[in-house]
Amino acid sequence: MTLTGLPLIGLVAVACVAAGAVTVRRWSRAGIAARVAGVLLLEALVVGTAGLAVNRHEQFYPSWRALRGDTGTVAVAAPVVAGRLDDRPATTFRWRPAGLAQWHLAEPPLISLPADYRSRPDVEFPVVLTFGAAAPHVSAAVTVTIAPTARSVLSDLPASLRRDLRVTATGWDIVGGGPLGDALVAAGVGTRDHSPADLPPALAAPLRLPTS
């Protein structure tokens, strides 16, 4: 008998009607405990009948196996792929990826790795990306400092960094960067922390009319 089949729904519905009839018929002769038990049983059967009917229509649990939580699927964690620079001995270095020239930066990005980066080969680290000023040291993240120019384009920087180091694809902390930082946030790479460089230029002092 399947969980969504009509026979099961009909059986529970018949049991509901029978329980209601017995409860009503023996109500006057039954004690308080029997009355309470009859009412509770009737309510449970009514809810069960309605639940089976809704489940048949919506297919929340299409089988007894699904009701037990056994859907036949097994969650498999994707393996962490080693970066090309994982064996680099220095923890702070200038990063020179293949597409560096197309980014039009003032200088190669400065990267600082967590102290335990190499001892945790099965971990992808978050990224703190800072434009201009040196990135703050974060012990649990890969920090990257970018020196952009007016011609800089960094749309492929996240993919390049993931090829060279074990970093997350999203969830980056992006500090500053103006339009470049906005573009990375719009691409879903991370969230934005504004720096003083993002503030609008100071306004000129207001003019005052001469007093007579």
Describe the structure.
With 212 residues, this protein is of the alpha/beta class. It has two domains: 6-67; 92-198, no CATH class. 33% of the residues lie in helices and 13% in strands. It has helices spanning 6-25, 32-58, 64-67, 100-103, 157-164, 179-186; strands at 92-94, 107-112, 127-131, 142-147, 172-175, 190-193. A six-stranded mixed sheet has the order 1-2-4-3-5-6, with helices on one face. α1 packs antiparallel against α2. The longest helix has 27 residues, at 32-58. It is elongated and about 95 Å long. The model has no long low-confidence stretch (mean pLDDT 84). Keywords: Membrane, Transmembrane, Transmembrane helix. The chain crosses the membrane at residues 6-24, 36-54.
Order of helices and strands: HHHEHEEEHEHE
- Which spans of ≥5 residues are poorly predicted at pLDDT below 50? none
Beta content: 5-15%
Return the structural class: alpha/beta
Distance between the termini: 100 Å
Radius of gyration: 33 Å
Task: Kindly state the number of beta strands.
Answer: 6
Helix content: 25-40%
Question: What is the total number of structural domains?
Answer: 2
Q: Characterize the largest beta sheet: strand count, sense, and whether it forms a barrel.
A: 6 strands, mixed
Give me the side-by-side strand order of the main sheet. 1-2-4-3-5-6
Keywords: Membrane, Transmembrane, Transmembrane helix
